[in-house]
Design brief:
Layout: E1 2-7, E2 12-21, E3 28-38, H1 40-43, H2 51-73, E4 102-108, H3 112-129, E5 133-137, H4 138-144, E6 163-168, E7 173-180, E8 183-189, H5 195-205, H6 212-231, H7 236-248, H8 276-289, H9 294-323, E9 327-331, H10 338-348, E10 353-355, H11 367-379
Helix pairs in contact: 2-3, 4-11, 5-6, 5-8, 5-9, 6-9, 9-10
Bound molecules: 5'-O-[(R)-(carboxyoxy)(hydroxy)phosphoryl]adenosine and zinc ion.
Length: 398
C-alpha cells in the first residue's frame, strides 16, 4: 500500500510518500517522495522557534510540499493522469480511488498550534480521498527513524529485542525501552532542559547562531583535535596548563583554567538526565571570565560537549547492562553529533547492535512518521480512530 505522511510538530513542514508492505516484524519501506521545508532561516533572528511564525509557515507550505511530493512520486489519477504540480492547490481535484491508501500525521508531542496545522490538512485529505487517518506519536517516529532510507539503513527484520532508544533532540532527551517489538516504555528522561536545548542555550551564550548544537560541536571538534596533537608533543608533559596561559596571556589567579563542568545526575541510580545545571555552570563561568577569547570559547564548547555527552553515554550504558539490551537506536537531531557517535560506539562494544538513522533522518522528518504510521496501522488496524477524533496533544507521552 501507499502511505502519505505529514510532519509539522515544530519548524519543518514535511510530507513523504512511501510504498510499504509486510507485517510488524518484517515491514519494508520504499521511498517514493520525500520533501520538506525547513524554517531555520526564519527563526534565526529569534534565537529559537517562534511558534506563531512556525504555524503561519506550515499553513503556507503544506500545499506546496504536498504538490512536490505528489509530483515526485509520479502518482496517477484514476483517469491515468500524472498528478503533478499545477498553479494553485492541486489536492482539491482528487477524488476517491486515487493511489494513496492511508495518511499518517504527527499528533504530538510538539507545538500544539503547529500540530493542528498538519492535522487539519491531513483530515481534509483523508476525507477527500476516503482513506484512514493514522495519528502518530512523534517520539515513536524518532525511534523508528532508523528504518528510513539510503545506504546503510536498518531493516525491521533485523531487530533483536530488547531494543533501547536514546532520543536526543531540541525538545526531548529520553531513554525508551522496547522489550517486546512495538511496545515502547520510557525508562528515563530529562528532568529539565533537553540536551539539544542546552546545546542551543550555551551556543547563544557564546554568541553562536541558532541552531547552536552543530556550531558548538564544530568548535569542540577542532579544539579536541588540537589537544590530541598537543598531547603527542614532549611539552605536553605537565605543561599544558601553563603553556595555554602563556599563549593567551591569561592570569592564572583570575581565571580558573583548565576548568571542568559538572556532569549532573551521572551517579543517580535512575536513568534520568538533567542539563539545566550544566548550562547554568557555563553561564557562571562566562560571567567570571568576562569577554571571551576565541580560545576560551573553544575550551568551553569542548568541555560542555564532553560533559553533556558523558551523561548521555553513561546512562545509556547502564540501561544496556540492566536490561540486557541487544539493539541500541540513537536518534533525534543531536544524534548527528560526532562525539556522541564515537563515544557511544566505544561504550556499547560489539555485543550490542548500534544503529543511527541515515543522513537527514536524525532530525525531524516525515518518513519516520510514515514508518511509525504503517507499523501502528498493521498492529491496530481495528483501532484507527475516526479522523474527526484526531486531536493535537502538545505533551503527548510514548
Ligand atoms: O530533532 P531535531 O531536528 O528537532 C527537534 O528538536 O525536535 O533536533 C534539533 C536539535 C537542536 O537543538 C540542535 O541544536 C541539535 O538538535 N543538534 C545538535 C547537533 N545537530 C543538531 N546538537 C549537538 N550536536 C550536533 N551536531
Ligand atoms: Zn523531533
Amino acid at each position: 500500500m501507499k502511505i502519505l505522511s505529514i510532519e509539522t510538530s515544530c519548524d519543518d513542514t514535511a510530507i513523504s510518500i512511501m510504498e510499504v508492505k509486510g507485517g510488524i516484524t518484517n515491514a519494508s519501506f520504499k521511498v517514493l517522495a520525500n520533501n520538506s521545508n525547513s524554517q531555520i532561516q526564519i527563526h534565526i533572528p529569534y534565537g529559537g522557534v517562534y511558534p506563531v511564525l512556525a504555524k503561519r509557515e506550515h499553513t503556507k507550505n503544506l500545499p506546496i510540499v504536498l504538490d512536490a511530493s505528489l509530483k515526485q512520486a509520479k502518482l496517477k489519477s484514476p483517469q491515468g493522469r500524472t498528478l503533478g504540480i499545477k498553479k494553485g492547490s492541486t489536492f482539491s481535484r482528487f477524488k476517491k480511488n486515487h493511489e494513496i491508501d492511508a495518511i499518517a500525521v504527527t499528533y504530538g508531542p510538539g507545538l500544539e498550534m503547529c500540530l493542528w496545522e498538519g492535522i487539519v490538512f491531513a483530515k481534509n485529505l483523508a476525507k477527500k480521498w476516503q482513506v484512514p487517518l493514522i495519528p502518530v506519536n512523534h517520539m515513536e517516529g524518532h525511534v523508528l527513524s532508523v528504518f528510513g532510507k539510503g545506504r546503510g539503513k536498518f531493516s525491521v527484520k533485523k531487530v533483536k529485542t530488547p531494543v533501547l532508544s536514546l532520543l536526543v533532540s531540541g525538545g526531548h532527551t529520553q531513554l525508551v525501552l522496547t522489550k517486546k517489538w512495538m511496545d515502547h516504555k520510557i525508562i528515563g528522561e530529562t528532568l529539565d532542559d533537553a540536551v539539544g536545548e542546552a546545546f542551543d542555550k550555551v551556543a547563544r551564550m557564546l554568541y553562536l547562531p541558532y541552531p547552536g548544537g552543530p556550531q558548538i560541536s564544530k568548535l569542540a571538534e577542532v579544539k579536541r583535535k588540537r589537544e590530541i596533537i598537543f598531547a603527542g608533543t614532549p611539552q605536553a608533559d605537565g605543561l599544558r596548563t601553563e603553556q595555554i596561559f602563556q599563549q593567551e596571556n591569561r592570569d592564572p589567579e583570575k581565571i580558573d583554567f583548565p576548568f571542568s563542568l559538572p556532569r549532573p545526575m551521572l551517579k543517580s541510580k535512575d536513568f534520568n538526565f538533567s542539563f539545566s545545571g550544566l548550562k547554568t555552570a557555563v553561564l557562571y563561568l562566562i560571567k567570571k571570565l568576562g569577554v571571551l577569547t576565541d580560545e576560551q570559547k573553544a575550551e568551553i564548547a569542548l568541555e560542555f560537549e564532553n560533559a553533556a555527552i558523558e551523561c548521555l553515554v553513561y546512562k545509556t550504558r547502564k540501561a544496556i547492562e540492566k536490561y540486557s539490551v541487544k539493539t541500541l537506536f540513537v536518534a533525534g537531531g543531536v544524534a548527528t553529533n560526532q562525539h556522541l557517535r564515537r563515544e557511544m560506539r566505544k561504550a556499547v562494544g560489539k555485543k550490542v547492535k548500534l544503529v543511527f538513522p541515515t543522513e537527514g533522518l536524525s532530525g525531524d522528518n516525515s518518513l519516520m512518521i510514515g514508518i511509525a504510521g504503517y507499523l501502528n496501522y498493521i498492529k491496530n488496524k481495528k483501532k484507527v480512530p475516526k479522523p474527526e477524533n484526531v486531536k493535537a496533544i502538545g505533551n503527548l507521552k510514548l
